[in-house]
Amino acid sequence: MKGKWWKYLCIVLIFYTLIMGLLGKVPRLAIVNEGIRNLYFHVPMWFGMILILLMSVIYSIRYLRSGNMVDDIWAAESTQVGMIMGILGIITGMMWAQYTWGTYWHGDPKQNGAAIGLLIYFAYSILRGAIQDEQQRGRISAVYNIFAYACLIPLLFILPRLTDSMHPGSGGNPGFNTYDLDRNMRLVFYPSIIAWTLLGWWIVSLRARLRIVEEHLQEEKLEETFAD
Amino acid sequence: MKKFLHILLALLLGPFSLFAQSPDQVEMADLMRSNGKIYVVVATIVIVFIGFFIYLIRIDRKVSQIEKDL
């Protein structure tokens, strides 16, 4: 994304989410009570993760087509931030589960699927760290990244719907049916997804830009040593 | 001199005693104390995020500077 506009949008939407998320009108429901406000903070972590990992897949495909190291850096940094959002999603989910379902780890299909998905991405980091050669690392990790994303989608969105899950949208129902009635919540929920995703992408862009600078400096150093 | 001070204090602080005496509800800036003080929490979170955003913008500027210097 070119320019700064999306960073300003991110700041505005984050504050909108924080203020409206805590003070806005929510339906009075038993068991969840005010916990329903977690919809603005826990769920966007996962949406953000999915979208940022999707960007990572796009960069991986671009890398495989172009062989440009810059694309590899963007793909790798996206998965890093995507994983951080996933970890935050799992921790906040455990918190929410404790006070609505009664245990931190309920063994809910979506919870298990998310944990397996994160492990797949941990393996991606280890794989990258294990290969010394830049081009080999780029190619192997790009291919792995595409397969990892292809595994993540059924783990999070298809398998939990085939069985009974405590999450909304299980047992064949599309997600968020239960909230469809509440317009007030949607007015905060959709902006919150954009807000947290943009915040994640901002961090991705900073990390990637630094890595690219680092790469340039290393190349310069190599050229200097060859010149000597 | 002492008498003058007493009068001055009485004049300055006099109006405050009026509020204490009025028996009915007086409108005050009670927003931050209402709703179980949730607004205080909101203010805290907003301040924390303002701080983090300033930090993030500063890092962003620094990275831009490094890119320019390269």
Walk me through what this model shows.
The complex is a heterodimer of chains A (about 230) and B (about 70). In chain A, about 75% of the residues lie in helices and about 0% in strands. By secondary structure, chain A is mostly helical. The relative contact order of chain A is 0.16. Chain B is an all-alpha fold.
Key terms for this structure?
heterodimer, A: 228 residues, mainly alpha, B: 70 residues, elongated
- Main β-sheet of chain A: number of strands, strand sense, barrel status? none
Fraction of helical residues of chain B: over 70%
**Residue-averaged pLDDT of chain B:** 80
Structural class computed from helices and strand pairing of chain B: mainly alpha
Helix content of chain A: over 70%
Mean pLDDT reading of chain A? 90
* Biggest interface, residues from each chain: A-B, 16 and 16 residues
Distance between the termini of chain B: 73 Å
How many strands in all of chain B?
A: 0
Layout of secondary structure:
The complex is a heterodimer of chains A (228) and B (70).
Chain A: H1 5-23, H2 43-66, H3 69-100, H4 109-130, H5 134-162, H6 183-227
Chain B: H1 2-21, H2 38-69
